[in-house]
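Researcher: Quick one. four chains, 334 residues in total.
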Amino acid sequence: MRVSSKAHYGLRMMTELAKAYGGGPMSLAEVARVEGLPLAYLEQLAGALRRGGLVESTRGVHGGYVLKRPPAEISVLDVVALVDGEVAPVECVAHGYETGSCMREGECASRPLWQRLKQSIDSVLSATTLEELVADHSLVDAFAPEPEPRTADAAPATPTEHEVINV
Amino acid sequence: MRVSSKAHYGLRMMTELAKAYGGGPMSLAEVARVEGLPLAYLEQLAGALRRGGLVESTRGVHGGYVLKRPPAEISVLDVVALVDGEVAPVECVAHGYETGSCMREGECASRPLWQRLKQSIDSVLSATTLEELVADHSLVDAFAPEPEPRTADAAPATPTEHEVINV
DNA sequence: TACAATCCTGACCGTGACAGTCGGAATTTC
DNA sequence: GAAATTCCGACTGTCACGGTCAGGATTGTA
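Model:
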């Protein structure tokens, strides 16, 4: 139940491109420098994002990458799905699943659960756009130098935010 | 973004124990037979569940495992967390995370997102108990001998179930 | 025209987690 | 004592992940 750092890197790259949106293309070398990520690795991820239609590339001296759609129209899910493959907690709720290939299908007690889980994850990830990410970021820069010290030691669970699921 | 089959196995085992709840202990050999899982592997998982306080074991000829709490009071999250380790999409939102060990902390644009995601996952997983799992299951057994033949060829996605998220 | 900056591709590789096995010890019942 | 069980540690094979490398293709600039 982890987000791969591949996806994480992809997201950071896309965030940079989102910041640069409107201007000229941004080179991977620049992204790698700013974010402190290995260039050669970014090239792979960028390829996936391009093939997926999220970015456009131009070669040559002042080349680089540009978002194909405005940041507000690219969700985190779009990015993660492209670099990481489809997000599905278990094979039988994946997109291309063929009925019957699991056996246990009739007796499987937990499939509805996994479907709920996938729904929930998809919902959260598709509700956040690149625009919001860069917006949050500048916000964090502006305010909140310290992240609000808790009174007592932090409680492990946070049942107070249960309604967060109704996005 | 997958549930390991470790967690899946653990859940299947716990479901069996939930069915057997109220009677005597159930042996792993029995679980392995019924669920078609490798015994030696189950032993590892059972150990984790026992150390985590979810089950109780008795050795010897009629020994086996028993749930320590009624199925209605054990959530899927309890099980997954024990066999799989804490469920956190990314390190910096994990339970034992120490502030400052990430660097990028100030500039990190996506941490709130991961926190939302974790919340969402936790919420779904802790909302389902073992009791519900076995209940769903018997329901499936009782009705629906055939999984309702679709009229046309099955549609790949199921956008009709979007409201499934509001559980 | 040469060169430098880019994208682009495929191959390669080390490490670690996962899934699973094995052998044997300890405990209990019959 | 024998059989059924839990318990434990060590071992292993496979595979995805994270990352590197070498080189080719394309394009702007001097």
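The first strand of chain A starts at residue 55 and ends at 58.
Researcher: Thanks, that's what I needed.
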